[in-house]
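Course assignment 3, question 2. Fill in each field.
Student: A.L.
Task: Predict the tertiary structure for the chain below.
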Amino acid sequence: MPGVVGDAGIYFDPLNTEEIIDAMDYLIKHSDTVTELCNRGLNRVSQFSWERTASATYRAYRSLL
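Answer field:
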């Protein structure tokens, strides 16, 4: 879900076992990447809130009326 994760994660096909293994193996071997992704994740989460979600939902409903 690129719209949610942005640059704070590693993408892989969730139905492809090899890609999952490769991603996990990469993270195990690159702790600096794990730290960087955690920091990016904390930054990314600050871009979301229930207030913003409610406001966007309200605007979407209003545009349909």
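Instructor remarks: DSSP finds four helices and no strands in the chain. The two ends are 29 Å apart (CA to CA).
Grade: pending
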